[in-house]
UniProtKB/TrEMBL annotation:
Pfam family, one: UDPG_MGDP_dh_C
Protein name: UDP-N-acetyl-D-glucosamine dehydrogenase
GO MF terms held by the record: NAD binding; oxidoreductase activity, acting on the CH-CH group of donors, NAD or NADP as acceptor; oxidoreductase activity, acting on the CH-OH group of donors, NAD or NADP as acceptor
Gene Ontology biological process terms from the UniProt entry: polysaccharide biosynthetic process
Organism: Anaerovirgula multivorans
Family the entry assigns: Belongs to the UDP-glucose/GDP-mannose dehydrogenase family.
Highest taxon of source: Bacteria
Gene3D superfamilies associated with the record: NAD(P)-binding Rossmann-like Domain
NCBIfam families, alphabetized: NDP-sugDHase
Cross-referenced InterPro entries: 6-PGluconate_DH-like_C_sf, NAD(P)-bd_dom_sf, UDP-Glc/GDP-Man, UDP-Glc/GDP-Man_DH_C, UDP-Glc/GDP-Man_DH_C_sf, UDP-Glc/GDP-Man_DH_dimer, UDP-Glc/GDP-Man_DH_N, UDP_ManNAc/GlcNAc_DH
Record keywords, A-Z: Membrane, NAD, Oxidoreductase, Transmembrane, Transmembrane helix
Domain UDP-glucose/GDP-mannose dehydrogenase C-terminal: 316-411
Taxonomic lineage: Bacteria, Bacillati, Bacillota, Clostridia, Peptostreptococcales
């Protein structure tokens, strides 16, 4: 069977490479020609996919990549991994899925198995794919079979991958479910079937909304602990000693990435169509989004207390990726914090070993080099993303003030202030 993967991004490229490595003949369709050319040159652009995996499947011909949708007519299975972002009005943008369905109508052969992996609200698979194909005269279970299976990989996670993370499958019919299960059983250790396609869509949203709500909660607790002169990080460490019934989340500068900030809004939007208003989702988003301003206010206070005004202060942001040890800056809280600092007329630089350049309100700045001389120039610095490969000793010795949003610097230092802990100077 020839496998088609539509969209070779953070979801599609690992999927296409893993399936090609496990013996499938895979055709990847990617509309971004720069990405296609990189892959053809044996180069990866997704951190979790090594260059030589790409090079070997391309060389062997088990993975072929193209921008041409007409290649769909060679596919027996089509797995849709296109982006599902938000529109400017914060509502779901499912236009990429819609476009793929139009191409399926045009090029795909009948008896195709279609699996949607892109995260979306419950009902998308049936409303957007099944209905569209049936309106075009395609007959379910004859001309096409259709399932939803959420991608559940955690970017940068070394322990869990596609193979050892149970794959959730929900089909429009039993047969659809079984067919998708047959496929995934060959590339993952465990397939977990659910009774409907909406259930499968909801599983993913529950997982990520659970994270957003718990992060919002612990951020609120961090602010409370600051008021009470208690160190939230110590409280979490102690609470985590409970062998059951507690799961640690950590305060931070807000949430980034292409999932956690977005998926709960998909669910909230769908809930509203049932006149159901989720307080948790809205509150969590509000708290998480407010962390950037909170941190800038704390910086202002700390600088004031040391006789400086934030205006004209030189501030260094340490770590701009949306989470540690990866290079992805999408929706990173660092971007918001830099914008807010610039609004306060501070002059802002950043250092991130994974992110060479950053475009902030269409100005491109590049990471500074971490040298003693450079560090001494700054009035204050903020650790936003605590990559493991940063020399924190060098920072502590050479930076006047460090505001730590990730509890990176464990020893108590006069010049180190910690989000969520009593800071004698604030
Ligand atoms: N964050 C906190 N405090 C925490 C955990 C995370 O502030 O306790 C922040 C992170 O800094 C980051 C954001 O939240 O900015 C999202 O972090 P994340 O750990 O959820 O990482 P993602 O979005 O890269 O990956 C998540 C997956 N994460 C885990 O399972 C740990 C998982 O929820 C999904 O499989 C994945 O999104 C996805 O693709 O949906």
């Amino acid at each position: 069977a020839i496998l088609g993967v539509i969209g070779l991004g953070y979801v599609g490229l690992p999927l296409a490479t893993t399936t090609a490595l496990s013996g499938f003949k895979v055709i990847g369709i990617e509309t971004n020609k720069t990405k296609v050319n990189k892959l053809l040159a044996g180069k990866s652009y997704v951190k979790d996919v090594p260059d030589d995996d790409i090079a070997s499947v391309i060389k062997k011909g088990s993975l072929s990549v193209t921008s041409e949708y007409k290649q769909m007519n060679k596919m027996d299975v089509i797995i849709i991994c296109v982006p599902t972002p938000l529109k400017n009005d914060n509502t779901p943008d499912v236009s990429y899925i819609y476009q793929v369905v139009e191409k399926i109508k045009q090029y795909a052969k009948k008896s195709i198995l279609i699996i949607l992996e892109s995260t979306s609200y419950p009902g998308t698979t049936e409303e957007l794919i099944m209905k569209e194909l049936e309106n075009a005269g395609w007959v379910l279970n004859k001309d096409f079979n259709l399932s939803f299976s959420p991608e559940r990989v955690d970017p940068g996670n070394k322990l869990y991958s596609l193979r050892n993370t149970p794959k959730i499958v929900g089909g429009v019919t039993q047969k659809c479910s079984q067919l998708a299960g047959l496929l995934y059983k060959q590339i993952t250790n465990e397939v977990f079937f659910v009774s409907s396609v909406k259930t499968a869509e909801m599983v993913k949203l529950l997982e990520n909304t659970f994270r957003s709500v718990n992060i919002g909660f612990i951020n609120e607790m961090a602010l409370l602990c600051e008021k009470m002169g208690i160190n939230i990080w110590e409280v979490i460490e102690a609470a985590s000693t409970k062998p059951f019934g507690y799961m640690a989340f950590y305060p931070g500068p807000g949430i980034g990435g292409h999932c956690i900030p977005i998926d709960p809004i998909y669910l909230e939007w769908k809930a509203k169509t049932f006149n159901f208003y989720s307080g948790f989702i809205k509150l969590a988003s509000k708290i998480n989004d407010s962390m950037s301003q909170y941190i800038v206010n704390s910086i202002k206070q700390i600088l004031d207390n040391s006789g400086k005004s934030i205006e004209k202060s030189k501030i260094l942001i340490v770590g701009v990726a949306y989470k540690k040890d990866i290079d992805d800056v999408r929706e990173s809280p660092a971007l918001k914090i830099i914008d807010l600092l610039i609004d306060e007329k501070a002059s802002v630089d950043y250092y991130d070993p994974y992110v060479k350049e950053l475009t902030i309100s269409n100005k491109t700045i590049s990471s500074i080099n971490l040298t003693k001389e450079n560090l001494k120039e700054y009035d204050c610095s903020i650790i936003i993303t605590n990559h493991d490969n940063i020399d924190y000793e060098l920072l502590i010795e050479n930076l006047k003030i460090i505001y730590d949003t990730r509890n990176t610097i464990k020893e108590k230092k006069e010049n180190v202030f910690l989000l969520g802990a009593v800071n004698n100077n604030t």
